[in-house]
Design a protein that fits this description.
The protein is an alpha/beta fold. The chain is built from 8 helices and 10 strands. It has a single domain, classed as Rossmann fold. The protein has a 5-stranded mixed barrel. The longest helix has 29 residues. The radius of gyration is 18 Å and the shape is globular.
Length: about 260
């Protein structure tokens, strides 16, 4: 079998189900995890690339589906249709709403809520069994980066939520519709006590990469943004590495 199929974008998915599927928004979030996979193959179709490999005795498939609700649903459907993983993990960054949470804290939510009254209860037992992970009560769905301390405080008060992200609720809902066991593992990329640099939300595109034009305009308007962006990049890499550590331990413990 050719394990480097990146140059063959229409390669059909494997006939046997994967053990675990991992869905993230941005390649950065799962890049360190992908680096740890052995016997890697890549399968591309419908604009998404699935990375398949072995880790901790499991056949793992990973997709970075893009930012937001529609992208998360698409990523889950893509994995379930083509690779049929026996369980799914939604993994990636989260913004803290609880001031007691620190950057790089690992989180396993007991429930995910959409802010409109809908809630999905999760069983955090497997994820919280990872020694470095803490269970939280509620992870809130948002539709953009929440960068200001005041807004984080307001969302926490309104929704009794501990953290926010833009994908987990949709991924959990899609997995539930297909009756697939679902887990959520998030790492805090920004705490609730510090404002993010202005303009970060405008720089991200739907794929989770940066808009070059928006970045250039931000740098021209505020040259000091260079330092901010490099700092954020370094923090994101650190968070992704910590997330990969926890995901590897979680994979080892999954049935």
């Amino acid at each position: 079998m050719d394990h480097d199929s990146a140059s063959r974008p229409n390669l059909a998915p494997p006939p046997s189900p994967a053990d675990v599927g991992v869905v993230a928004a941005m390649p950065m979030e799962v890049g360190h995890l992908v680096d740890r996979l052995a016997r890697v193959s890549r399968y591309s179709s419908r604009g998404l690339t699935v990375v398949e490999g072995e880790l901790e005795g499991r056949l793992v498939v990973v997709v970075a589906s893009g930012v937001g609700v529609a992208a998360a649903r698409r990523g889950v459907g893509h994995l379930l249709d083509g690779h049929r993983p026996r369980s799914l993990i939604s993994a990636g960054f989260a913004g803290a709403l609880d001031p007691a949470l620190n950057r790089n804290d690992l989180l396993a939510p007991r429930s995910v809520v959409d802010g409109q009254g809908a809630a999905i209860e999760l069983d955090p037992t497997a994820v919280a069994a990872v020694p470095t992970v803490r269970a939280i009560d509620r992870l809130l769905l948002v539709d953009r980066v929440i960068g200001r301390v005041a807004e984080k405080s307001r969302l926490r008060a309104e929704h009794s939520a501990d953290a926010v992200d833009m994908e987990t609720f949709a991924a959990a809902d899609a997995a539930r519709a297909r009756h697939v066991p679902f887990h959520s593992l998030r790492v805090v990329s920004d705490d609730a006590r510090t404002d993010l640099p202005p303009g970060i939300d405008r720089m991200l595109n739907a794929s989770g990469s940066y808009r070059v034009g928006a970045a250039i305009r931000a740098l021209v308007a505020r040259p000091s943004a260079v330092k901010d962006f490099w700092s954020l990049h370094a923090h994101a890499q650190e968070a992704a590495d910590r997330l990969a550590d926890a995901l590897q331990v979680l994979l080892r413990g999954l049935a």
